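thread: overnight batch results

M.L. [08:02]
morning all. the overnight job finished for the chain we discussed friday. pasting input first so we're all looking at the same thing
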Amino acid sequence: MSAAALSERLAEAAGPIVVKEVRQGLRARVFAIFFGLLLIGCLVVALIAAAEFDRRLNAELGPDYFRIFLGGLGIVEFFVIPYSAFRAMTREREDETWVLLVLTGLGPRRIVRGKVASALAQGLLYASACAPFVLFSYYLNGIDLPTVLVALMLSAAWSCLWVCVGVAAATQAESRIGRALVHFLVLGCLLAATVGGIAFAAFFSEEGGRLLREQASFRAFCAGLILWALSTAWVASEGAASGLALLSENSAKGPRVALTVQVLFALVAGAFVAWLADGGDAIGAVVGEVCGCIYLSVAGVFAISEHDGFPPAFAREPGWSKPGALRSFILLVGLLALGTAGCLLLAHLMGSHELKYQRVLLAAPMFVVLYLSLGVLLGRLTPLKVLTEPVSTRFGVLVALVLGTLVPMLLSLMVHGRANDRDLNLLSPLLGLSAINNGDRGALTLRLVGACALFFGFLAWTVLAARDTERRT
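M.L. [08:03]
and the structure it wrote out:
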């Protein structure tokens, strides 16, 4: 088979949108500039490393220069490429050219796949250019090949995650003001992701090899981080396709399936890790529960801000797959309950029966339900409803979080002269978990948080159910 025929078959298998986006991305001036800068920078650093290694016999310079090479690659992979993907999707939204692509029969998933594939193809070329220099650090002594391989896998997964998040963020804003706010938010998130990624790379270059050899928990953490990043990238890509979906398409089914599969997989992975650990402290289950609740709270903001009701075309679909904020809210509460039950079981299997752990495991999802319910009520029953969905509910969640954090702190400062009084900050999203284990009143405070979450959750469910019935048009 000739090279031309093979190229045509690969292009046909990838699809026209992928080919178009890859060609357009590789022809962009940004790609040429940063590719040249990365290549020249790595070459200069490699020449300096070679000269320094010749002067210092038996020196272990590998970790230092591995950190430099990985940091340069991280700037491109964690910031430039995700931001370019975000801007590419934003231009499609601003010019409304995505509608023409959808009408050709490509569908929102294939459009998103094209944007993501284009960005990842550029990332692969950047990594290919930097890979020889990263491997060169192995010959400078002090770092082994498994550490290099794991670091590159972590970098690839982290980059894939933020590419999908950038594309998904570009599909969420409709107005010009909304796009400007999303733009600044994406810049801040990508900057934080880049700083965090480079900082972890610096730590990994120094201690990663030793921890991978000696600590099974660190190996499990690296594997879990890679799997979480890739699964979250899947959820984000489904969210991006949902943002591009037309009214005649079911925009909720894909993200719900992806989120449910991710939660179930996380529980199975946690059980497998607990089985390998064969006992131990339950702090891992607590950390996993808190991190999972934070993640589900972010996903929940998008879930509860769906439009109410559903078109008649979806009336015959199963209840869980019909569009509408009511079903997304119920699914989210169910996933929180399932995750809590799984973490409680893991803590029990680890041989821990401490009340402080059990209280945190029970309280964390209650805070998520409480503040998401308040966001629903504020966004749909107060003057914020003039903003319409999804803006009103998302803004309602933000208002609830700000008031729930600042008001108790101000009251505590006025009454007790300090801002962190546990009794007054009991329902604070920032300090509430620490107040759960407040001396002998821990059980009482847990019941209070549970009662508030149940009460406002019931109100939110009632409002969503009423609006869902009214707006099935």
